[in-house]
Amino acid sequence: xxxxxxxxxxxxxxxxxxxxxxxTSVSAALxxxxxxxxxxxxxxxxxxxxRLAEALGVRQNTPDPVPLPRxxxxxxGIEPPGALSVWVLDPKRVSDQTVTxxxxxxxxxxxxxxxxxxxxxxxxxxxxxxxxxxxxxxGFVEQGTYDMVILDTxxxxxxxxxxxxxxxxxxxxxxxxxDLMRPATDSGLMGTTRRxxxxxxxxxxxxxxxxxxxxxxGAFGGMFVKLSGNAELMRARLGEDDVAFLLVSSSGxxxxxxxxxxxxxxxxLGLPLGALVLNRSLVPLARRPFPNASLLPPKPxxxxxxxxxxxxxxxVRESKAINAAVDLSLxxxxxxxxxxxxxxxxxxxxxxxxxLASVSTWLLGEAGPAWDPDxxxx
Length: 378
Hints:
By secondary structure, the chain is of the alpha/beta class. The chain has 15 helices and 8 strands. Strand 6 (243-249), helix 13 and strand 7 form a beta-alpha-beta unit.
C-alpha cells in the first residue's frame, strides 16, 4: 500500500495521532516525499523534537514559513518546482494576525492586542487554540503559494478538537456573555447585573479588572460573528475532495484504540479519511527470505547445521510476530476500508533529513512491496 495516489490528488493533509507514534516525523516525511514529486509543500507542525527542528532548520516564533535551503534538498532528490517549507505553528502569533485582520479599525486592533485580558486569557477561551490552527491552515491554502499543505495536529487525545472549534467558540463567546460584559447603559436587570459583577470582580481583582474585561469583550465581541463564520467556512473546506485525513498509529493496543477513536470522530463529522499509517511496524520485514538449507555449503559441518537450526528457531519466532503484524494490517484495512501503509522501525532514527527521506520511500511505496504473500509461513 502507498500514499502516492493521495499525494498526487490531494492538496490538504491533516495528520492525527497520539503522542509518541512518530506523527510529526510522518508529516515531515510525507512533505519531503511530495516535494520529490515536484510539489511545493508546506508542513505546519506544532512542536517538533529539537533534533528534527534542527534538521529542518526551523525554530519557534518565525513570522513566515522557513524553506529548506535549495542546495540541501537537492541532495535529497528534490528538483524544481518541488520545494519544502516548514512553519512551527504559534497560536499567539496567528491569533494576533487574526485580530488585526478582523478588527473594524487599526485603533480597535491595537486596543485589543494591548488589553491585559486578551494577553492573559485568550488561550483559555475554549476553541481559540484550535481556531488558530484552522486559521493558519486555511490562510496558507487560500494564498495559493503551496501545492500542498500538511497540518501536524497536537500530540494528544484532543488532537481533533480544532474540528469543533466553531461550536466551542460559540459556547464560550455567546452573545449573552458579550452583552453582559458591555458597559451598562440601561437600568434594567441586565444593567443591575453588570454593576453587581463590576463591584464583585473589582473587589477581588482590582478596580481596573472589570474595565479591562469590558474593553476585551467590547472589541472581541464585535469580531465574534466574523470568527464564527470563518470557522464554519474552514470546517466546510476540510470536507472537500482535495482533503485527506491520515491517522498515524503504532501497533500497540493503546495507540490502536486511540486511532479508532480518531477514526470514529472523523467519520461522525463526515470528513474524508484517506489512510492509516502504521508506524514502526513489522509488516515490511515480511519481505525477508526465510532461512533454509540453501544457506548451507554443499558439505556442511555439524557446527554449520547447528547454527542454521538455531537461526531457523529465531526466524520462526520472528515470523510469528511478523505474520501477526500482517494479519493486524489486513484486519485494519478491512475494517477501516482505507489503505494501511506500514513503515518499519528504522535503526538510524528519523530526526534528520536522511531518515525522513527513508520514511518517505515507505509512505509512497518506493521501498518495494510491503509484504510478500508467497513468503513461507510458520
